[in-house]
């Protein structure tokens, strides 16, 4: 048995013999960035301050000769050999170290999907090196000065190919959102800045999780959900999605996959308007705004981590009710209107 020590927080994580550093951290709830889990992408590369480890087979493109000489290791393949292995990860309060933002990174639009009458999905892939980010963060998209930069949250967990997925709402007076939803076509190149924001929660959360999303606020919620479930988060995860009508529920295929793949994931939908048209397979469902019906869905939120994303009014109203049902951990991501465009403003509460 070895011990992994996180610097600078000093937190210690047990690592049984034969287990990789990544697996040991995940077993204790620490969400170290990763994708391939096979030594090919470099997403889990961190600096080892002291101790010895068996690196295993890692491709040079994931861990270069210079990286190795400077003491870096790929934690998805690294197995401790010494009693203690100290790695640089997180801050003094054990929160993840945010990746430094970069500007003017070229991405190509590889997919454009009409998700609802008012929301489209854009998928972008990098031409060169991709931007690293934490689930729940956002990027800036635009083409100044004609189309000002606006912040949009990623709707996917980090991937080896660097793809970024965005849900963008059509805004009639939104200079940038109108351009992205109505004019940008597959094959076009966009410049991306980021990542930004701290809507990432506590990586060591080991409690039930409640996710409240309204409209395109589903994006950072989906990113957090996919990442947590994929790394083996075992506690109950309940997503309550607020939409106007069944026609506004998206992305149905991905939501159904999560329900069937992960038994601890539950989807509930709340409709704020009545529509006799398109039906939704999501069960159970409710009628009314989430702040008005939340107490009937879950009378108590004590010991629950709650993530809220959507319009600023949606977030503030939900947070007020959530705090009355606590105490628990509350993380919010309101999308504030600025000159007709919605952008995300991260607040960690």
TrEMBL record:
Annotated FAD-binding FR-type domain residues: 102-202
GO terms for MF: 2 iron, 2 sulfur cluster binding; dioxygenase activity
Keyword Iron found: yes
Keywords: 2Fe-2S, Dioxygenase, Iron, Iron-sulfur, Metal-binding, Oxidoreductase
Record-annotated 2Fe-2S ferredoxin-type domain positions: 2-93
CDD domains membership: fer2
Cofactor(s) listed: FAD
A Pfam entry, by short name: NAD_binding_1
Entries under InterPro entries matching the protein: 2Fe-2S_ferredoxin-like_sf (IPR036010), 2Fe-2S_ferredoxin-type (IPR001041), Beta-grasp_dom_sf (IPR012675), Cbr1-like_FAD-bd_dom (IPR008333), FAD-bd_FR_type (IPR017927), FNR_nucleotide-bd (IPR039261), MRET (IPR050415), OxRdtase_FAD/NAD-bd (IPR001433)
Name recorded for this polypeptide: Benzoate 1,2-dioxygenase electron transfer component
Protein's organism: Ferrimicrobium acidiphilum DSM 19497
Lineage: Bacteria, Bacillati, Actinomycetota, Acidimicrobiia, Acidimicrobiales
Gene name linked to the record: benC
């Amino acid at each position: 048995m070895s011990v992994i020590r996180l610097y600078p927080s000093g937190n210690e994580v047990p690592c049984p013999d034969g287990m990789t550093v990544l697996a040991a951290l995940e077993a204790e709830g620490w969400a170290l960035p990763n994708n391939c889990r096979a030594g090919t992408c470099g997403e889990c590369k961190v600096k080892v301050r002291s101790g010895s480890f068996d690196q295993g087979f890692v491709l040079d493109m994931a861990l270069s000769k210079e990286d190795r000489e400077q003491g870096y290791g790929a934690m998805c393949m690294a197995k401790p050999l010494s009693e203690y292995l100290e790695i640089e990860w997180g801050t003094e309060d054990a929160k993840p170290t945010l990746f430094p933002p970069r500007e003017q990174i070229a991405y190509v639009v590889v997919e454009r999907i009409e998700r609802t009458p008012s929301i489209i999905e854009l998928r972008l892939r990098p031409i060169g090196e991709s931007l690293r980010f934490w689930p729940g963060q956002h990027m800036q998209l635009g083409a100044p000065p004609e189309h000002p930069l606006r912040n949009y949250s990623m709707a996917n967990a980090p991937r080896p190919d660097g793809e970024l997925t965005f849900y963008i709402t059509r805004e009639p007076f939104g200079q940038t959102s109108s351009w992205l939803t109505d004019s940008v076509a597959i094959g076009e190149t966009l410049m991306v800045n980021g990542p930004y924001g701290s809507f990432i929660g506590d990586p060591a959360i080991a409690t039930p999780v409640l996710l409240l999303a309204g409209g395109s606020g589903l994006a950072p919620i989906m990113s957090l959900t996919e990442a947590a479930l994929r790394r083996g988060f075992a506690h109950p995860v309940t997503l309550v999605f607020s939409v106007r009508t069944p026609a506004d529920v998206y992305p149905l295929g991905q939501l159904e996959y999560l329900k069937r793949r992960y038994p601890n994931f539950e989807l509930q939908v709340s409709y704020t308007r009545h529509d006799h048209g398109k039906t939704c397979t999501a069960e159970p469902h409710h009628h009314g705004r989430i702040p008005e019906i939340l107490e009937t869905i879950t009378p108590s939120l004590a010991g629950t981590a709650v993530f809220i994303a959507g319009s600023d009014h949606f977030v503030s109203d939900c947070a007020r009710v959530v705090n009355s049902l606590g105490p628990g951990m509350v993380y919010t991501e309101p999308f504030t209107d600025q000159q007709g465009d919605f952008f995300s403003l991260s607040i960690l509460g």
